[in-house]
Amino acid sequence: MDSHRIEKILLTGGAGFIGSQVARAYLQAGHEVIVVDDFSQGKRERLPAGVRVYKANICDQDRLDDIFSREYPSIVNHHAALVSVRESCEQPELYWQVNLQGTVNVLETASTAGVRKLIYASSGGAIYGEAEVLPIPENASANPISPYGESKLAAEKMLWRRDGNLETVVLRYGNVYGPGQDALQNNGVIAIFSHTLLHGKQPLIFGDGSQTRDFVHVRDVVDANLAASKPGVEGIYNIGTGKGRSLLDVYLKIARNLKVATLPLFLPHNNFEVEHNVLDVQRARERLGWKPCIPFHMGLWETVQIIVSNHYQKYASV
Ligand SMILES: NC(=O)c1ccc[n+]([C@@H]2O[C@H](COP(=O)([O-])OP(=O)(O)OC[C@H]3O[C@@H](n4cnc5c(N)ncnc54)[C@H](O)[C@@H]3O)[C@@H](O)[C@H]2O)c1
Prior knowledge:
13 strands, 7-stranded parallel sheet, Rossmann fold, alpha/beta, two-stranded parallel ribbon, globular, 10 helices
């Protein structure tokens, strides 16, 4: 970001796993940060000191209008969403409401309030569906196979339909992992595997574990948000690593880290998760000047160590 330009940034979903770390990075870069979150999944303890917080639901347009007319942000960074692929199959209407209608509300309010730039956290893991080419470039056809992926893609499309001069950046993340992810919210396979093993249980793998994912560290994702916030940056960018890792391989690395020999429980493949997802990140390298910097083995080791330490702290205090 232009180091001389201090922005007023309104961050939806800022109490979430990724949003809270983006909020912290913005503050550290000297920006003013306003968080809008309904705390349905977010946690107050994740919020860094120094942000101004509004507890609000993005489905409530009047409330958004009220917040925007008090704050007049220059940038909106939109991370609020419901994020569970499995839950989206059980409650598709809810996902459409929050992820699509909520995004339309944020977009309309931002346009009316004279916001300069909108950054949207999309999902490179969920919108492409089963890809014909790996790694997947941004111009590949998008055929999501879950209501979650459909709602994220539909929201993206609405961003390009608006009138006016709102600079728009869509960041399509791979599987984001790292410190702060909450296994109890049933998202993030690394957190779930670690947590389950620490509780002496057998983690579940749907299928034979050969399905591949592009695991990108949350600090790399934060850096992509900083790059996307620079004046003049627009467009769609995959944010991953360009490398696929099988779930079984990731599982075995975690088990080795935890020094356990438990085998996962293999269940039948489910039809709302793709077999292979690896993102081509060349465009982000060239146009954002961004690249993933955290090697997977280091990011994984750090993440597992933090989960272990939180686990033992929790039980020591009981
Ligand atoms: N974690 C990943 O691997 C991943 C991958 C691709 C894209 N994304 C996208 O990144 C964003 C953040 O994901 P995350 O993993 O940090 O999830 P998260 O659940 O930790 O964060 C989402 C935040 O949005 C808030 N929220 C949900 N519904 C809301 C509503 N109606 N009004 C206001 N706030 C609401 C939640 O309370 C939470 O704080 C989401 O848009 C998600 O689709 C995440």
